[in-house]
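Subject: sequence -> structure tokens, single chain

Hey, anyone have a minute? Need the predicted structure for the following. Not urgent.
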Amino acid sequence: MGKRPKYGNRKVTFKGETFDSARERDRYIYLLEQEGRGNIMSLRRQVTYELVPEITESVEVRLKTKTKTVVKVVQRAVTYRCDFEYMRCSDGATVVEDVKICPTLIPKEYVIKEKLFRWRFGFPIRRVYSATESVEGTDDNKGNGNDKKDDKKGKESAFDPRTARARAKV
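Reply:
Had a minute. Here:
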């Protein structure tokens, strides 16, 4: 018997393509509809991005009659594979999406890769929690689970005498 998936998802097949979860398949169906309506174009699945290139070094190997220089891979490249990539027709922006269960179940490795992606390519990965989330909108952390944290930070930094008094009493 095979290993049970970490989050309990089951692989599903649609039109000969295998998806990691039913939610990812449903998102693909929604994106196909959006592509048909002309809202997005160039929809691709499982696109791999190189976040950190591989590290190589030249090593001289002594053979019987000569010395040969060989390039050896010291560390493999760090890559990220997105669920979907497409271009929004409204503004021409490239969108990279990853379908997630909920904002609280995000592995730390994913968060690191998400930050490396934004640093390397200059735009964020869009986290999608619902199959029918709109393809329109801004990319500045929308759907990345950072919205609530940013709002909370902004509220705490603004001075409000009512909350200041309440904090002082506690």
